[in-house]
Design goal:
The chain is an alpha+beta fold and 224 residues long. It has one domain. Helix content is 29%, strand content 29%. The protein has helices at 20-26, 62-65, 72-84, 97-104, 167-173, 185-199, 208-218; strands at residues 10-12, 41-47, 50-58, 110-131, 146-166, 203-205. It has a 6-stranded mixed sheet with strand order 1-2-3-4-5-6. The radius of gyration is 23 Å and the shape is elongated.
Length: 224
């Protein structure tokens, strides 16, 4: 299953790879590889004619998985990850990941980080014989025969939040962080987030599909 927002013109850019230092700077995935979701990735794409560094991150939040409603903290979280990366020792960082991306990829137009979540549900599959009956159709059923009900796990991956920063927006935004590259999420949310979201307002929230899934799951229906 691909990770891409509907309604966007998206095509892969295969001619250029992402510099390793940019990948390491964002550190978007789980610290240990066994905890990484297989749909997490970091790639260059053309989106609406703009060369874009796309970072797809599996991020779970109760505002998503429980209520299906966005909150300010979640918006600030995705903006913070886009600017400062995810699993980083910021005491050793001398350059912001977002600044590095625009510097190391000169023709890069924008950086976009997507949050997605995963829902797992159990559903019964057609039963199978644990022990087949030996009786024929004209005989009594074999009392030793057993039917086994098999349960399958259904996975649904849903994009729910995207935040983009264009090169020109970053030039304005970067002035906010000249004094330090070490800003934790709490400080960012309290002191910087409103200004950041105002400078780069390209935030797309899509909770429609999540709300549909939660509603149908609670009513016992099947989300399509």
């Amino acid at each position: 299953m691909g990770i891409a927002f509907n309604g966007l013109l998206i095509s892969s850019i295969n001619a250029q790879t992402i510099p390793d230092e940019v990948r390491k700077a964002f550190a978007p995935f789980a610290v240990k590889s066994q905890f990484r979701h297989r749909f997490e990735d970091l790639e260059l794409k053309a989106i609406d004619g703009k060369k874009t560094l796309v970072i797809n991150v599996w991020y779970e939040s109760s505002a998503v998985t429980k209520t299906g409603k966005p909150d300010t903290q979640l918006f600030c979280r995705i903006a913070h990850m886009a600017i400062f990366g995810r699993h980083l020792d910021r005491s050793r960082s001398k350059e912001l990941p977002l600044a590095m991306a625009f510097q190391r990829i000169p023709d890069l137009d924008q950086v976009r980080i997507n949050f997605f979540t995963q829902f797992l549900t159990n559903k019964p599959l057609p039963p199978s014989w644990a022990q087949k009956p030996t009786a024929t159709a004209s005989q009594a059923a074999d009392p030793n025969s057993k039917l086994r009900v098999i349960w399958g796990r259904e996975e649904k991956v849903i994009n729910y939040l995207s935040y983009s920063v264009q090169r020109g927006e970053w030039k304005t935004m970067a002035s906010l962080f000249k004094q330090s590259t070490q800003v934790n999420h709490e400080t960012f949310e309290n002191e910087f987030c409103p200004s950041v979201l105002k400078i780069a307002p390209s935030l797309r929230a899509n909770f429609t599909e999540i709300n549909k899934f939660l509603s149908e799951s609670r009513s016992g229906g099947q989300a399509q």
